MTH1187 family thiamine-binding protein (Streptomyces halstedii), 97 residues
Amino acid sequence: MIVAFSVSPLGVGEDVGEYVADAVRVVRESGLPNRTDAMFTSIEGEWDEVMDVVKRAVAAVEARAGRVSLVLKADIRPGVTDGLTSKVETVERHLSR
């Protein structure tokens, strides 16, 4: 499964990069395949391991902010691995035509 999520603190002002970095650090230290862009962090793995990482990422932000916003989107597709790479490669292949 691939989960794309965004976690942000609320009530801490406009500059939230430091808080978001705490969440991304948890994801990167998980060892699961992941990517971060300007809007979301995507992580790939089995349901329980991915959700555990998301939960810990939220907790990392929550430790410093009393209120946290979480947006999550999941692609649940059993048997598919390396979706983070293969989905992008498919789009790039179509674009190169």
